[in-house]
Design brief:
The chain is α+β, with helices and mostly antiparallel strands. The chain is 47% helix and 14% strand. The chain contains 5 helices and 6 strands; from the N terminus they run H-E-H-E-H-E-E-H-E-E-H. Strand 3 (83-86) and strand 4 form a beta hairpin. Helix 1 packs antiparallel against helix 5.
C-alpha cells in the first residue's frame, strides 16, 4: 500500500499542471504573421520563460482543424491570421497595439512566476468555418500519453508482481 501511495505522489509531480500555452496560428505567406513571430522570438519568449509558445501553420490539415476548433469556441465565422489563443482568449492580426494585447493576455494567466491552469474544451467544428492553408511545418505532440503509459505499467508491476510470485511459491 505504501508503494502505491508513493507511486501516486511521484505521478502527481511527474504530470505538472498545464502550463500556459501561447498559440499562434499563421500562414507562411502572411507578412503580419511573420512580424508577430519575430516579436515573439525577440521579446515575449524572454519575458515569459514559463509560457510554452506554439506556432501552428494552418497549411497542415491537423493545424487547420485545431484552428477550426478555436473558431467554434470563440464563435468566429471568419478566421484571419495571425490568430493568437491564450487560455480562453484570442486576438487576430498584428499591429502597433497588438504587442501589448499579447502581454495583457499572458498576464491574466501568468502571475508572479506562477502559472494558472489553462484548459481547452472538446469542440465540434462547424461547417461554415473556412480556413486558408498554404504551407506545412512539423507536428509537435505532448509526452503526456507516454507518461501515462509508464505510470500504468509501474502500477501494474507493483500490484501484480507480488501476487505472481506468491502463486509460484
Amino acid at each position: 500500500m505504501k508503494k502505491i501511495l508513493l507511486l501516486l505522489v511521484t505521478a502527481f509531480f511527474m504530470f505538472p499542471a498545464h502550463a500556459v500555452k501561447f498559440e499562434l496560428f499563421y500562414s507562411p505567406t502572411c507578412g503580419h504573421c511573420h512580424e508577430a513571430m519575430k516579436f515573439l522570438d525577440a521579446s515575449l519568449k524572454a519575458e515569459y520563460p514559463s509560457v510554452t509558445f506554439v506556432y501552428h501553420n494552418i497549411a497542415k490539415s491537423h493545424e487547420s482543424n485545431l484552428l477550426k476548433h478555436y473558431a467554434a469556441k470563440f464563435n468566429l465565422t471568419q478566421v484571419g491570421v495571425p490568430l493568437v489563443v491564450v487560455g480562453d482568449e484570442f486576438t487576430q492580426g498584428f499591429g502597433p497595439g497588438t504587442a501589448q494585447d499579447y502581454r495583457n493576455m499572458l498576464n491574466k494567466y501568468v502571475t508572479a512566476g506562477e502559472t494558472k491552469t489553462v484548459g481547452t474544451a472538446d469542440l465540434t467544428v462547424p461547417e461554415e468555418v473556412a480556413v486558408v492553408a498554404t504551407d506545412e511545418i512539423p507536428d509537435v505532440k505532448s509526452n503526456n500519453t507516454l507518461y501515462f503509459l509508464v505510470l500504468v505499467a509501474v502500477v501494474c508491476a507493483i500490484v501484480f508482481l507480488p501476487k505472481l510470485r506468491k502463486k509460484k511459491s
